[in-house]
Amino acid sequence: MFYKKTKKVLLMGRCAAGKTSMRSIIFHNNVATKTRNLEPTILWDNKTDVQFLGNLHLNLWDCGGQDDSFNDYLTTYRSLIFKDVHVLIYVFDAVSAELDKDIHYYQSCLESILTHSPDAIVFCLMHKMDLIQEDRRDKMFEKQKIELQVRSEPIQIQAFQTSIWDETLYAAWAKIIHCLIPNIKALQASLDTFCGICGADEIVLFENTTFLVIANSASIHHPDVHRFEKISSIIKQFNLCTRKESYSRQMEIKGSNFTAFFDTLTKNTSVLLIISDHGINDQILIWLLS
Ligand code: GTP
Fold first, then answer.
1. In the predicted structure, residue 281 carries a pLDDT above the cut 60
2. Which region holds residue 172: left if phi is over 0, alpha if psi is between -120 and 50, else beta?
3. How much distance in Å is there from the Cα of 161 to the middle of ligand 1?
4. How far is ligand 1, taken at its centre, from the CA of residue 127, in Å?
5. In the UniProt record, does the keyword Nucleotide-binding occur (predicted)?
6. Rounded to the nearest whole angstrom, what is the distance from the C-alpha of residue 90 to the centroid of ligand 1?
7. Nearest C-alpha to atom 22 of ligand 1 is from which residue?
8. What is the CATH number of the domain that holds 215?
9. What beta strand segments (E) does 13-169 contain?
10. Shared domain check, 163 and 27
């Protein structure tokens, strides 16, 4: 029997931490430069309802971070906001002048999560890292991550550094959606088989609304560990152009020693294949993707 499985994701953090900016970039095809004029979110916006792979729906609650709103979440709306939460994403402004207050609100939210959704997975995003000097970022983040884990006990958190100005945003959100996809292991195994049949160097599977990487399979070692997030960002730009100019989503790029194919695979996914073995007949790949 068909049933719709909705997973509630809470996006929280103090005002101007960057929550709506990341939501609009990941889910609504906005670009970083256009986030400067976003209006503050009053109470919450839960209209982002994305269909992921098959019958999985993600319902994102972007909760405005004004002090008054926070106080309402923790009192009047406590059960409404914090019940049935699958994932809590808490966004910290890396250059906040009120770190103690930020931590106070964060811990109050965790208490409510423990009461109403004790199995929720908690992600902390140390955001706006572009505003920190590049050579200080990793050290500062590692220190904050340890501090946040201590403040989050008994909950085990996952923390990432992010910025809307680079691929770190896509890296963090790809990790977040991984924990929402129930059959991710089976999907990975199928992709490995597909990669073997095609004789591809690498296959990357993207979710169509967000262009986040769902899974990848590689038969070679690649030196750039951030290549997937970069690809997400590039393909998103490509998607923006094609929507505007109504080009086809299909793409084939021939380099001197590789061929890359990009195409829609299913209603919710697209696939990128990279092949360097010229012995492989392109027609086989076209057939596999058709
Ligand atoms: P509330 O709705 O008031 O809770 O705020 P919010 O957390 O939704 O913040 P919003 O997304 O509106 O962003 C506030 C400002 O931060 C905007 O001017 C964004 O352009 C800016 N911003 C968001 N992300 C980043 C980032 O990664 N780096 C920098 N430098 N600025 C960012």
1. no
2. alpha
3. 15
4. 9
5. yes
6. 14
7. 18
8. 3.30.450.190
9. 44-52, 56-63, 85-93, 121-127, 157-161
10. yes
